[in-house]
Specification:
Layout lengths: L31 E2 L5 E6 L14 E3 L20 E2 L6 E3 L5 E7 L5 H4 E8 L7 E10 L5 E9 L6 E7 L9 E5 L7 E5 L6 E9 L2 E6 L9 E4 L16 E8 L1 H4 L9 E12 L1
Parallel strand pairs: 4-7
Antiparallel strand pairs: 1-2, 2-17, 3-7, 5-6, 6-7, 6-17, 7-16, 8-13, 8-17, 9-10, 9-16, 10-11, 11-12, 13-14, 14-15
């Protein structure tokens, strides 16, 4: 989900939302080695008490949708639901899940009537890593725009990886996308159906490229591969290039558009996220 404050035209290709930068001093938990298996670099099992926010040592709750410069009609502020930080919209359920919720209320336009939420990780990872999360999208409804993704927000040399993204605009196909530029002009997409069952979404980041699996099992071939330097301005092999994990449900905007016929509240549930050395 990109846009990064740039205006874009409404076209039938995957686009995305803008990003707020997390605080400048991210907390990096020490690596934890399991007795067997790969070195775990970052993880959250979301085992906090019911109603508690995600661990503030691991996550930043984004307080507002970003303003888009030179927006098309759907990306004007009144057509974009708000991001909020309260525990109605982003919380742990006490059963081992993070819940991100989008709601409908009263108001004169989409911005006033609808709210969603977005969290960004405070840990950054680079090449030589595998990222995986178990996610359930109970939010596949008109106007909703959920995603699990990774981003580097550097405005000069950024990049984004959408492991799974679904569009409630009844136009763009859901799928998995790699953005080598944050303005949406250099990308590769695998279009595939997305449903509301529990699934794991996995990406391995190597010098040779990015490799993707759904419901990974040992020996399974990736369903999507994006070779290194296969897109213009490929940043993912740059020395020191890192990304943070993001979970969100937006409402409205280019990817969601009109939510009036949708069913709200709508929820994303995340059982866990794990990042380990590849």
């Amino acid at each position: 989900m990109f846009m990064m404050g740039l205006g874009v035209a409404a076209v039938a290709t995957p686009l995305g939302t803008a990003h707020a930068q997390p605080p400048p001093a991210p907390v990096e938990p020490p690596p934890v080695a399991a007795e067997t298996g790969p070195l775990m670099l970052f993880q959250d099992e979301f085992n906090g008490p019911a109603g508690s926010p995600p661990d503030p040592g691991r996550w930043f709750i984004v307080p507002a949708r970003e303003t888009i410069r030179n927006p098309n009609e759907w990306d004007k502020p009144f057509n974009m639901g708000r991001y909020v930080t309260d525990q109605e919209h982003v919380f742990q359920d006490g059963s081992g899940n993070l819940v991100i919720r989008a709601t409908r209320g009263e108001g004169a336009n989409i911005q006033e009537k609808y709210a969603g939420a977005k969290i960004m990780g405070l840990w950054r990872g680079g090449m030589g890593t595998t990222w995986e999360a178990r996610v359930k999208l109970d939010c596949l409804t008109d106007g909703a725009w959920p995603a699990f993704w990774l981003v580097n927000d550097n405005p000069v040399r950024g990049g984004e990886v959408d492991l799974v993204e679904w569009y409630g605009n009844n136009d763009w196909p859901s799928g998995t996308t790699v953005h080598a530029r944050l303005d949406g002009t250099s990308f590769a997409t695998d279009r595939h159906p997305v449903d509301s069952a529990w699934h794991t979404w996995r990406m391995t980041w190597l010098p040779t490229g990015l490799y993707f699996w759904k419901d990974y099992q040992p020996g399974m071939e990736p369903f999507f591969t994006v070779p290194a330097n296969s897109l213009q301005d490929w940043p993912f092999n740059d020395p020191g290039f890192t990304m943070v994990p993001v979970f969100n449900i937006a409402v409205g905007g280019s990817g969601g558009r009109e939510p009036a016929a949708g069913t709200y509240p709508a929820e994303m549930r995340v059982d866990w996220i794990r990042v380990f050395a590849s």
